[in-house]
Amino acid sequence: MHDIIIIGGGAAGLSAAKEAYDPGLKILIIEREAQLGGILRQCIHNGFGIHKYNLELTGPEYAQKTHHLLEGLNIEVLMHSTVVDIIKDDHFELTIMNPTDGEFKLTAKAIIIASGCYEKTRSQILLPGDRPAGIMSAGNAQRYLNLDGYMVGKKVFILGSGDIGLIMARRMTLEGAEVLGVAELMPYSNGLTRNIAQCLDDFDIPLYLSHTITDIVGKDRLENIVISEVDHAFNSIPGTEKTFEVDTLLLSVGLVPDIQMFESLQFHTSPLPGRSSISIFKPRSMDALRAAMLYTFMTLLTGSVKKVKKPDDMQKCMLKMSSNPPPLNRWNPVKTSAMSCLNALIMKIKMRPFSFH
Ligand SMILES: Cc1cc2nc3c(=O)[nH]c(=O)nc-3n(C[C@H](O)[C@H](O)[C@H](O)COP(=O)(O)OP(=O)(O)OC[C@H]3O[C@@H](n4cnc5c(N)ncnc54)[C@H](O)[C@@H]3O)c2cc1C
Predict the structure, then answer these.
(1) Is 14 in the pocket of ligand 1 (CB under 6 A)?
(2) What is the pLDDT of residues 45-72, one digit of tens each?
(3) Atom from ligand 1 closest to the CA of residue 11
(4) What are the residues whose beta carbons fall under 8 Å from the beta carbon of 320, sequence distance 6 or more?
(5) pTM assigned to the model
(6) Most exposed residue of 55, 79, 176, 300, measured as fewest CB within 10 angstroms of its CB?
(7) Based on the number of CB atoms within 10 Å of its own CB, is 231 exposed (0-12), middle (13-18) or buried (19 or more)?
């Protein structure tokens, strides 16, 4: 039996392993991809590591640097393996699948779930219109382009002005696509000011604030999209329609913690609506960090938090956080990264169980 199994070998999982490490503990990281690093592997832009390493790194460099922290530590890693189920009894029993061993089980006294996020899809935000090819999340486009070497379109529109959307506007432009605009439902962008300047302004890409997509047209491939201005209640305003001829629509409309598989464990999660977008958090205190930590779903199932003595305390700090949310337009991706939150909290680990509800 392992003392700790960490599910996910992204920045959070690697940091968790480092912080939880103790020569007396048997620790295993399980990662479904063939490489460690998680989403950072596809984030080839710079801007990572400024706070933690005092360096301006790309995502892969940051991931590698974090990975190097584990060198020499006796931490096992199981690659290309997906955790498909977890049962909790007096210990955790994980069902894992991989191409070599098929399905098998491992047990652990504690688990840390660091499985990251997925992006909201078209159906989750109820976009109207046809359903042609050429509509995908900005992160999927980023992966196709940066990891697999595929160009996903020539004439592009982006819905959502979060940082992933902004970064993809620049990336697609640099690769030769024409990015006709970015539409944002809110009257302000969720992205960093730096990204607005460097990814949109520098390339003359228009940002349509208080706009959303009101029609999508295309039989096989996307042909055009219609955006409209919205009022304060987010209803589209008739007469404000603008049509763009595009073959690709990238969605950057929020992240959802990738935790469905683990919900049978009945741990505490954020009471905020939908638990949908980690990007709205800017932790401002240890309480907030704990709340953000849970919210970004680095939910620590070690049952062993020193300062947060009871699950109740966690819920209180989440509620405190939700009743006093930080402004939406002040996301600092480094500070809000799951890893930073995880680091802050995991420093408080002491192996002492609390019960699950
Ligand atoms: C498309 C995209 C772009 C982003 N760009 C930025 C950015 O530019 N800057 C920024 O600060 N933040 C960005 N983020 C936020 C990003 O999620 C965090 O910054 C941070 O990298 C997340 O690290 P993580 O370890 O929590 O998750 P991830 O990096 O997603 O790692 C989770 C890992 O868990 C593995 N995994 C998941 N489920 C299982 C399972 N069942 N079994 C085994 N392994 C599993 C996955 O394969 C993955 O490697 C982006 C997020 C997304 C989705």
Answers:
(1) no
(2) 988 999 888 999 999 999 999 999 899 9
(3) 25
(4) 287, 291
(5) 0.77
(6) 176
(7) exposed
